[in-house]
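Hi U.,

Before I forget, here's the chain from the pilot set. I'm dumping it here mostly so it's searchable later in email.
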Amino acid sequence: MYKIVPLLLLAFTIQACTWVKLTPEAEKVRVLSATEVESCKTVGKTTVSLKADIAGIDRNQEKVKKELETLGRNHAADMGGDTIVPASEIKDGKQSFDVYRCIN
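Structure:
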């Protein structure tokens, strides 16, 4: 029991941390809806993933969502895109995004 309490405290503390950092190139990449990119050029698709749980404890879903968006934005910048649109729901820490170039 005494070993479990520190592990649980560590797991909850770690949940508050953001592990994924936005690259400088991705700072201008936006997250939009499908209706907002109708006049944009499709660049491609990217699928990103991360750990959705720590030691069997689910991470905060909003943090997972934000980190997946950050990863998607990083990938979009690498692909020459400036906009991403979620193309799937989040499942087991994995999500797909459509990548677009909207700004010339």
